[in-house]
Predict the 3D structure of the following.
Amino acid sequence: MKKQTRWIGPMAVIFLSLLFLYASGPSGCGNENCGNGILDEGEACDDGNTVDGDGCNSFCENEEPAGTGGATTGGTTTGGTTGGTTGGSSGDECATDADCPASLASPAVCDDPETCQGHRVEGKCSGGVCRPTSIPDDSACTPASFTLDCGSNPGVSCTGTPTQSEPVCPVEVCNDLSDNDGDALIDCADTVDCPNSTTCNLNPGVGFCSGGICSD
């Protein structure tokens, strides 16, 4: 009778252990409540089905869903869901200049009025990142910015065009029949720039300005 008692004890323990494993199942295997939509004891999740690949598998265990990958919106990549390839979500990331935000740009300014030189700022895509970049632009340099004093001749001002050169007072050419310096006086008539003894257009090499006229 003692031998039988010693045998029944261990068998009872084994039987109860097997019964417990069957009730819970390894990793939820055999759990008849899995898929009922109720988080029962031993379940990490329960989404109301036993389909794998939706985040909660057929054993009511959490799983990583397949990634959907990144989506591109307006040239800027946004990250995909868990398991997908996570792209940049920063507004400063870019593929082309067109992807850069307008907030990086600023209007033209006149940096040096005396030379009529200025710049503006634009967002430029460099190495996949938008960077504020200085662009030559002289359009902010207008006549109101600077006028070069040319003495008896009209002054020279900035023009307000995007590309300008440094203002330089023009010089009258005394033998080309043109008003080069803008003072409405041509050749010898411009006695300031073409004084007496200056070669004029009449009989080149012989004619000279004298009293505002060209004579030989």
